[in-house]
């Protein structure tokens, strides 16, 4: 592993000159992370579903003042289609000039049903998007980053990386496995100066949790347990994502950074 740069501390968090490929950035946590990375100076490659007209994140990054060298590009990929996922990293390299310095796996889906009624199709869909797509993209990133001896991979895990949850068996299985995949890749690639880490969101007010937010009983039960006294917001991930994407985290390897308002400490 290369040593942490000896530069003034604020420069450790600069992402000027870095190219980031991020999935799941059209809304919620992913959108906030893409904007934060761009604010830190990175050029961003956004992944969007074919035919999507959602340009909110793209336009927000384009509107940022500052570094004229920062660019934002869009590549199309259906992350539920593994053939499309296998082609994604190469497409991103093409539009980003042949270099990807940071991969952020943020795309995810949720399916809720009692375990006795949970369908095999829902199981396969959740495992494909939340685990297999992350594996395929991370493997492609590793093939690019390891020979160059530099890179960052950041996986979005979940409280269900640690806990079983209710009526979400596939999601819990996928996120539990993603936490272990993060550590496994870190064990192999840290010595090659590629840092692989995860971010673990707590209960965040996004559309993925709209059913919980609309259930008065579950909303009260969850809210009463959060020491911070509130649900998280997407912008709460701006600092953590920039930290893990930058030289400030050069010696952070295989870590799962919990951002949950203190939930796991209860």
UniProtKB/TrEMBL annotation:
Database matches in SMART domains: PKS_KR
Superkingdom of the source species: Eukaryota
Domain Ketoreductase per the UniProt entry, residue ranges: 18-192
Keyword terms: NADP, Oxidoreductase
A Pfam family reported for this protein in Swiss-Prot or TrEMBL: adh_short_C2
Keyword Oxidoreductase annotated: yes
Protein family membership: Belongs to the short-chain dehydrogenases/reductases (SDR) family.
Name of the protein described by the UniProt record: Ketoreductase domain-containing protein
Organism: Somion occarium
Highest classification ranks of the organism: Eukaryota, Fungi, Dikarya, Basidiomycota, Agaricomycotina
């Amino acid at each position: 592993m290369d040593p942490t740069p000896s530069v003034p501390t604020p420069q450790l968090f600069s992402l000027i000159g870095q190219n980031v490929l991020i999935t799941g950035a059209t809304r919620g946590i992913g959108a906030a992370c893409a904007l934060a990375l761009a604010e830190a100076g990175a050029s961003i490659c956004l992944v969007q579903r074919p035919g999507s007209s959602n340009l909110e994140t793209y336009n927000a990054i384009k509107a940022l003042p500052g570094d004229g060298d920062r660019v934002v590009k869009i590549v199309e990929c259906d992350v539920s289609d593994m053939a499309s996922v296998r082609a994604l990293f190469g497409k991103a390299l093409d539009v980003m000039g042949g270099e990807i310095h940071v991969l952020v796996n943020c795309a995810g889906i949720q399916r809720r049903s009692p375990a006795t009624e949970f369908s095999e199709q829902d199981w396969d869909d959740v495992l494909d998007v939340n685990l297999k797509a992350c594996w395929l993209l991370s493997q492609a990133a590793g093939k690019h980053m390891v020979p160059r001896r530099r890179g960052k991979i950041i996986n979005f895990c979940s409280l269900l990386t640690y806990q079983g949850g209710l009526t979400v068996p596939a999601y819990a299985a996928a996120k539990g496995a993603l936490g272990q995949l993060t550590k496994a890749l870190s064990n192999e690639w840290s010595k090659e100066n590629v840092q692989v880490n995860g971010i673990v969101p707590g209960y965040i007010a996004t559309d993925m949790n709209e059913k919980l937010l609309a259930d008065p009983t579950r909303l009260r039960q969850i809210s009463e347990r959060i020491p911070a006294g509130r649900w998280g917001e997407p912008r709460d991930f701006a600092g953590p994502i920039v930290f893990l994407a930058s030289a400030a985290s050069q010696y952070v390897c295989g870590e799962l950074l919990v951002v949950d308002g203190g939930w796991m400490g209860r």
